[in-house]
């Protein structure tokens, strides 16, 4: 469970988050949606204790994050970063094993016990990437790397999961794969907050959407009610239309929706003919 | 793509799983082999030298000291050479290798940069200045070592405070402050060289080149506990160093406090570097090379890299120092040997970059 109450954050004079409040129940896959600069990343960093907000409270599973030390916080919430590079050629299994760190007690100096290996392998298995266990993490493709980082968060066995743009640099197939994996995790009772640029992904896969615009919550609720033409208008300058295909909402730029195919790239032969 | 029936899928997973091992036994074996090599190397270093002493006589001297002098009569010359000259030198060499390699591994891991070495925070420049002061004004310090140690610490403290912003020490600031403080102290050393007479100049140059000429038991007794304790504490943090190498934010999200961990390990790495530099001067390349070599053999896991680098560093200094004192009738400064042997290795590393040790 995530509970955010009247959170404020500023970088110098510019306020990035102004009185943001939200409450997300256990087992919900919640999308945090908003354009660049809307404060998504700042909100994330505050929730993970990476930034200290001067005003407001954040409770994770009912505990104030600022009253917890780094290691107890890491037993409650896991973080899947967006872009990732390691300077060392760790193996996939070692990267996923790092998720066990908050549970290692003394710091896991020497032998890592069987239970921790089990948890590592289960996490890989859950995402069907067990075959990558012995590959070098730095040589994987972007999609595989993202899956490995999610596996690491699963191995961390927390009740809350934060994902920063989990699909932004991936191809279509991998995007769908990641969202399906997240749905599976939410079904197991894990609370997930995933930020995304893509209104369609959020509308299709999330149980709930929090839409941020200029540091404020613009809409909060089921995707059908949160992602509408009027809410999109408040965050984007470009107007959008929400179409429905068999009841599934699809967000389309208005220019495309109204003028139809004439705005789309033309068939090359026709373009040539017009040029003459 | 076809989907396998559930039970077949499970079987396949088990088959894959049984192949995944965490390969710790192999890595432990490598470390055991390195330890044995280090012991053999030490014994060879006790035998090697201008004055020929047999293995039996070396053992006689050692057992006389370890099990009591009365039991076995020992030749006094042998005793002096083995116990008072060669043994402290061998032990000090191993300690220096341990300290510099451990510090190198820590710096490379925490700075997430393959090119850093233990002297990056100004330890060597500070120590050179302290030692030069001690050479020119002998009454100033208790001895050369203490002068070197004091200024090594002064340099690092300066770097620490110069790089501190908002309660943190960003890595870039640390490195830049290290460069600034190092060049400041190097300039100060140049002033001292300029003011010095010929004998003093010669002494400064030899000190800076580093060497084990004057190694004695008091050096070993002062250095050993500091290096052992420093290494021990750093080793207990080695898994967290793996996590830290992923970056500060991730380390925090994985339950490791990056600021605190960096402070502890960098402090200890700097302390053990300062203490060995103060007693033997600046010995080049070891701290840069050995962590790379350890990673090439064992992979990047610091739990194994740290002890392997330390053992290899000890062995490397032992070999270089033994060559330094036996190749010619006069002694060659050890840094010349560590560099001449080290440069080809680093060339090799440069040519194969990306394949081993570091990504990118």
Q: Which descriptors apply to this entry?
A:
heterodimer, A: 276 residues, alpha/beta, Rossmann fold, 2 domains, 6-stranded mixed β-sheet, 4-stranded antiparallel β-sheet, 11 helices, 35% helix, 26% strand, globular, B: 360 residues, mainly alpha, ABC transporter involved in vitamin B12 uptake, BtuC, 15 helices, 0% strand
Summed over residues and divided by their number, the pLDDT of chain B gives a mean of 86
What CATH calls the topology of chain B is ABC transporter involved in vitamin B12 uptake, BtuC
Portion in strands of chain A: 25-35%
Strand content of chain B: under 5%
State the fourth-level CATH superfamily of the largest domain in chain A.
Answer: P-loop containing nucleotide triphosphate hydrolases
Helix content of chain B: over 70%
Verbal overview:
By secondary structure, chain A is α/β, with parallel strands linked by helices. Chain A folds into two domains: 2-222, 3-Layer(aba) Sandwich (Rossmann fold); 238-276, no CATH class. Helix content of chain A is 35%, strand content 26%. Chain A has eleven helices and twelve strands. Chain A has helices at residues 40-47, 70-76, 92-97, 114-126, 142-155, 172-187, 199-205, 223-226, 229-235, 254-259, 268-275, and strands spanning 2-11, 14-24, 29-33, 55-60, 63-64, 77-80, 160-164, 191-196, 208-213, 216-221, 240-245, 248-253. In chain A, strand 7, helix 6 and strand 8 (191-196) form a beta-alpha-beta unit. Chain A is globular. The model of chain A has no long low-confidence stretch (mean pLDDT 86). Chain B is an all-alpha fold. Chain B has a single domain, classed as Orthogonal Bundle (ABC transporter involved in vitamin B12 uptake, BtuC), CATH 1.10.3470.10. Helix content of chain B is 75%, strand content 0%. Chain B has 15 helices and no strands. Chain B has helices at residues 6-19, 24-47, 55-67, 76-111, 123-136, 144-162, 171-195, 198-209, 217-236, 238-244, 248-253, 258-280, 286-298, 302-326, 334-351. In chain B, helix 5 packs parallel to helix 7 (171-195) and helix 13 crosses helix 14. The longest helix of chain B has 36 residues, at 76-111. The mean pLDDT of chain B is 86.
């Amino acid at each position: 469970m995530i509970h955010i109450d009247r959170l404020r954050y500023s970088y110098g004079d510019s306020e990035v988050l102004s009185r943001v409040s939200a409450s997300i129940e256990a087992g919900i896959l919640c999308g945090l949606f908003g354009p660049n600069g809307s404060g998504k990343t700042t909100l994330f960093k505050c929730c993970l204790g990476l930034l200290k907000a001067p005003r407001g409270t954040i409770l994770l599973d009912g505990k104030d994050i600022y009253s917890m030390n780094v290691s107890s916080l890491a037993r409650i919430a896991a973080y899947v970063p967006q872009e990732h590079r390691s300077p060392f050629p760790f193996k996939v299994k070692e990267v996923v094993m790092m998720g066990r760190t908050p549970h290692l007690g003394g710091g896991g100096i020497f032998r890592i016990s069987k239970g921790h290996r089990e948890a590592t392998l289960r996490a890989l298995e859950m995402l069907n990437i067990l075959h990558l266990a012995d590959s070098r993490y730095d040589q994987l493709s972007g999609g595989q790397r993202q899956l490995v980082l999610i596996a690491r968060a699963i191995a961390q066995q927390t009740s809350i999961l934060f994902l920063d743009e989990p699909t932004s640099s991936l191809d279509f197939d991998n995007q769908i794969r990641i969202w399906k994996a997240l749905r599976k995790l939410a079904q197991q009772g894990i609370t997930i907050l995933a930020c995304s640029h893509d209104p369609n992904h959020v509308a299709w896969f999330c149980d709930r959407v929090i839409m941020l615009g200029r540091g404020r919550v613009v809409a909060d609720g089921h995707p059908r009610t949160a992602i509408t033409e009027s809410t999109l208008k408040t965050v984007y300058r470009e107007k959008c239309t929400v179409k429905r295909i068999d009841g599934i909402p699809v967000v389309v730029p208005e220019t495309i929706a109204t003028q139809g195919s004439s705005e789309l790239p033309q068939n090359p032969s026709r373009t040539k003919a017009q040029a003459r | 793509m076809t989907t396998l029936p559930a039970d077949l899928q499970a079987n396949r997973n088990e088959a894959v799983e049984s192949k995944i091992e965490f390969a710790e036994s192999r890595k432990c074996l490598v470390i055991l082999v390195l330890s044995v090599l280090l012991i053999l190397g030490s014994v060879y270093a006790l035998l090697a030298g201008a004055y020929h002493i047999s293995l039996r006589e070396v053992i006689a001297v050692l057992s006389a000291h370890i099990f009591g002098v009365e039991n076995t009569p020992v030749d006094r010359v042998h005793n002096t050479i083995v116990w008072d000259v060669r043994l402290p030198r061998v032990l000090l060499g191993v300690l220096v290798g341990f300290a510099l390699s451990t510090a190198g591994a820590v710096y490379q891991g925490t700075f997430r940069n393959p090119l850093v070495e233990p002297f990056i925070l100004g330890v060597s420049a500070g120590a050179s200045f302290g030692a030069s002061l001690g050479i020119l004004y002998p009454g100033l310090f208790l001895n050369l070592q203490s002068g070197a140690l004091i200024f090594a610490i002064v340099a690092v403290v300066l770097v620490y405070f110069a790089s501190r912003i908002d309660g943190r020490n960003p890595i870039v600031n640390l490195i830049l402050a290290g460069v600034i403080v190092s060049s400041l102290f190097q300039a100060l050393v140049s002033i001292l060289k300029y003011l010095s007479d010929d004998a003093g100049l010669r002494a400064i140059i030899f000190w800076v080149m580093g060497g084990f000429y004057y190694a004695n038991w008091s050096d070993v007794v002062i250095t050993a506990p500091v290096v052992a304790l420093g290494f021990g504490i750093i080793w207990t943090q080695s898994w967290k160093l793996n996590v830290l190498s992923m970056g500060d934010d991730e380390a925090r999200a994985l339950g490791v406090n990056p600021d605190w961990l960096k402070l502890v390990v960098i402090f200890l790495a700097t302390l053990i570097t300062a203490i060995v530099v103060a007693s033997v001067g600046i010995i080049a390349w070891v701290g840069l090379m050995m962590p790379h070599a350890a990673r090439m053999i064992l992979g990047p896991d610091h739990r194994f890299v740290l002890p392997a680098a330390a053992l290899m560093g000890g062995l490397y200094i032992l070999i270089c120092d033994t060559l330094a004192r036996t190749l010619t009738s006069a002694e060659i400064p050890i840094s010349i040997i560590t560099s001449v042997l080290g440069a080809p290795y680093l060339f090799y590393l440069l040519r194969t970059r990306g394949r081993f040790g570091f990504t990118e």
